[in-house]
Write a structure and sequence with these properties.
disulfide bond; two-stranded antiparallel ribbon; three-stranded mixed beta sheet; glycoprotein; olfaction; mainly alpha; odorant binding; G-protein coupled receptor
């Protein structure tokens, strides 16, 4: 059941399907247990990221430029997971494999926007660490609240724009044969490959997006840590180097967790089985949002102190309330 659209002012016909069919895994028995596992990961992610955002809001000591970026990372993780996982569970646990054409493009837009924003958040945190270690005396001047807000806002604007262009270009494609998407969600690459007219602009943007939202951020982060490593090599004592490096461990952990699996998937996508690709992409989409808050709570001294302080205040307030009630 295809809908036919005529482009304004030109005699061009676009054949758009009424819906796409998300195929998911091929030939794997009891695959629903995997989606139940994704549901569990999602719930942990929601709790963890909500807790990190709440701690940053409640503790005035964490109202620093660095924690503006950490808050935005938690927000992007929470928003991205909520855009992806509930819909995936609806598709595969409740057998709603057909997604209306416009709903599929909307689903794609929000998933790609939030997942891409995670990489740019890591760039903001890398810049924060770079200035803090190499230019410690100028940190308060170079990394201000206004600067961090402006940087993150520009990242959101950039990601929303490029994702909107990528999704918008799909609307000029015609789908004459299959509407089965060989993925677990409305995957940009898998959808434009189904088209039967000229796909050149889609191929170009499909090749450009990984460069803009994966390779450039990764190169910047690697260059940043090369500069940090060089600066630390000049520090007199080993203890001073270790102390400075410890402030980077949480961020480095996030970089490895986010970039390593997704780069392996993209560089080997032509060689790996579709089922393996789905597993890699789905785990890459849900695991970093789950692990990010855990890593920051365990490896960041300020957040650990803040959590202990907030719990102590809450405990004391309960004791005070009980005493008042007894009196």
């Amino acid at each position: 059941l295809n809908s036919v659209y005529l482009s304004l002012g030109k005699n061009i016909t676009f054949v758009r399907p009424a819906y796409f069919i998300i195929s998911g895994f091929i030939g794997i028995p009891n695959v629903k247990y995997y989606y139940v596992f994704l549901c569990f990961v999602y719930l942990v992610s929601v709790l963890g990221n909500t807790a990190v955002m709440a701690v940053i809001i409640l503790d005035h000591n964490l109202r620093t430029p660095k924690y503006i970026a950490v808050f935005n990372l938690a927000f992007a993780d929470l928003f991205g997971s909520s855009a992806l996982v509930p819909k995936v569970l609806d598709i595969f646990l409740f057998n709603h494999h057909r997604i209306i054409y416009n709903d599929c493009l909307t689903f794609m837009f929000f998933c790609y926007t939030c997942l891409s924003m995670q990489a740019l958040n890591l760039v903001a945190l890398a810049y924060d660490r770079l200035v803090a270690i190499i230019f410690p005396l100028h940190y308060q001047v170079k990394v201000t609240h206004r600067f961090m807000f402006s940087l993150i806002a520009s990242f959101w604007l950039f990601i929303i724009t490029v994702t909107f262009i990528a999704v918008g270009l799909l609307t000029r494609l015609s789908y004459c044969q299959s509407v089965v998407v060989n993925s677990y969600f409305c995957d940009h690459g898998q959808i434009y490959k189904l088209a039967c007219n000229d796909k050149t602009p889609n191929i170009v943007i499909g090749g450009l997006l990984p460069i803009l939202i994966l390779w450039f951020p990764l190169v910047f982060i690697l260059v940043s840590y090369s500069c940090i490593g060089y600066a630390l090599s000049k520090v007199a004592t080993f203890q001073e180097r270790l102390k400075a490096f410890k402030t980077c461990t949480a961020h480095l952990s996030l970089v490895i967790i986010y970039f390593l699996p997704i780069l392996i998937t993209f560089t080997m996508s032509a060689k790996i089985h579709p089922n393996a690709r789905i597993i890699n992409l789905s785990l890459t989409s849900v695991f970093p949002p789950m692990l990010n808050p855990i890593i920051y709570v365990l490896q960041t001294q300020e957040i650990k102190v803040s959590v202990k302080t907030l719990l102590k205040i809450r405990k004391q307030s309960k004791i005070t309330v009980k005493k008042v009630m007894i009196k």
